[in-house]
Amino acid sequence: MKTVIIDDEPLARSVVTEYLEAFPQIEIAAQCNDGFEGVKAIQLHKPDVVFLDIQMPKINGFEMLELIEEPPAIIFTTAFDEYAIKAFEAHAVDYLLKPFSQERFNKAVEKCLAQTAAPQQKKAVEELVQNSPQSPAQAERIVVKNGGKIKIINVHQIKYLEAADDYVKIHTAEGIFLKAKTMGFYEGSLPTNGFVRIHRSYLVNVQEITRIDPYEKESHLALLRTGEKLLVSKAGYMKLKAVLGL
Do residues 132 and 139 lie in contact, with contact meaning Cβ atoms separated by under 8 Å? Predict the structure, then answer.
């Protein structure tokens, strides 16, 4: 089996390396100090298990997982708050709360080795990503994979979000980017005073709206700075009025 260790603390990586000596069947394919390196290492080595820190510079562990198409089994090595630990437990992903002992480490690895069903591991990681707690920094950005590159989009750069089957289209001045999330997720995570769900298919940055015109029946059209027009439902219009103080 192969593993990748991703942690911005050299001491933490060395502890995992030392503890892994008890498992000669696991080969360390790479060690990374941030999420960008982690994504590349996972794509290159295709490890069976990843030891992943959460609080890292650039992008955190949750954001990194969103960029992995075929996620391996994940064991978190984290100093994250207790409330987040409940999320890990609920989705069958093991964790090691720093500082951890060799005994606790062994239990996590043995649990991982016992869970050999890859589809179950993938489902657990996908559920974790969808339900992971957000840090204040995450609420101000969206991390996307654009070809072979990773792009960080500040929420203030977003014009609007559009539902697209199992994805969300993120419309910016630089182009359109896809994210495997739901509109409901962004409605609950983006700043409520800056973004409004004007329609089941649209979540708009209110700073981009220049005019709201009546349309068919009880609907309206929101005209954006770019000239684009978005349909506003009756419920969406009520939300817009509340945010705009009308």
Answer: no
Task: Give the residue ranges of DSSP H helices in 20-67.
Answer: 35-45, 61-66
> How confident is the model over 50-68, as a mean pLDDT?
87
**Local structure of residue 81 (DSSP, 8 states):** -
**CA 144, CA 146: separation in Å to the nearest integer?**
6
Whole-model pTM?
0.72
Cα 84 to Cα 90: distance, rounded to the nearest angstrom: 10
| Cβ–Cβ < 8 Å for 28, 55 | no
In this predicted model, what pLDDT tens digit does every residue of 80-123 receive, in sequence order?
766 566 656 655 468 888 899 999 999 999 988 887 555 556 56
Q: Do 26 and 16 contact (CB within 8 A), yes or no?
A: no
Is residue 126's pLDDT more than 70? Answer: no
d(CA 161, CA 183): 8
CB 168 within 8 A of CB 162: yes
Residue 209 bridge partners (DSSP): 224
Interatomic CA distance for residues 120 and 71, integer angstroms: 11
